[in-house]
Amino acid sequence: MKKIKVILLSVGFIVVFAASGQIVQNGGFETWVTNEAGGITPEHWVAEDNTSDVQNVFKVSPGFNSNNAAELVVTEIEGNRKAVFLNSDNIPVNKKYNSLTCYYKGLPIHEDSLNIEIKMYKNWNVVGEGMISFSEVQDSFEKLTIPIQYSSEDVPDTALIFIIVGNKDLINHLGTSYTLDNFNLVDAAGINDLQASFLSLGDVYPCPASQQINIPFELKQAENITINVFDMLGNEVFSMKDKKFMQGKNEINISLQNFKSGAYYYSINTSNGIAYTKNFIVK
Fold first, then answer.
1. If residue 66 lies in a helix (H) or strand (E), which one and from where to where?
2. For residue 197, what are the domain limits?
3. What is the pLDDT of residues 37-86, one digit of tens each?
4. What distance in Å separates the CA atoms of residue 144 and residue 138, rounded to the nearest whole number?
5. Same structural domain, 204 and 277
6. How far apart are CA 141 and CA 162, in angstroms?
7. Fewer C-beta within 10 Å: the chain N or C terminus?
8. Coil, strand or helix: which one is 197?
């Protein structure tokens, strides 16, 4: 059974997203180098335990849509079944990104899990972060989306990615593995005049919700609206296509009868752009 834990910061503003992004340095794990301890590691990443004698981060082929990917495997190191740690080098950024995406597949054993955290810094102060933790068997590459929530209006200058495969209770199981590829930062333009010019989004309610979620918004003019709701793995769980709404105050009501407990986020598409708001919780 899939067990997902998503840690989000509370935010009180609405963000309009652009469609571009930034590929993380060697986020596709195509190039590998020898580190100071003699271990083979992906360039621009730090594999904590890779040495000339032991490895728990491996170059594997093929990747999602490329030659290589990185496989993180729980192995025995100096008599201990250690969790696998893989961290990025400093990633220069100059804007607020909406989310971190990647592709993954893997085989966890017992309660071992895949944990990915993204932190956004301004002068080494944390201004945004997102985290996902789950245990799921996945035979083929699947896209994973980790929303980034901001606690400050400061624009970050550096990002760091932290990956752990194993069990945070330190009881790790030999053979647990996850393979990762194609890390990418998805662009967010921040609060701007585009949102104010055509759409004003209210706060979803109730939150947490159990029976129905209500999404209020106000249109500057009549529009055809498409709304899509996604879980934290980026899977679309609800969609309403091209429904006409009139100028003024409107509200979309979504039944949660088939929703599992957890965090979700949504997008509202109009002819003028795509507006995203903060996540909501289903209990």
1. none
2. 193-282
3. 999 999 999 998 999 999 999 999 999 989 999 999 999 887 788 889 99
4. 12
5. yes
6. 20
7. N
8. helix
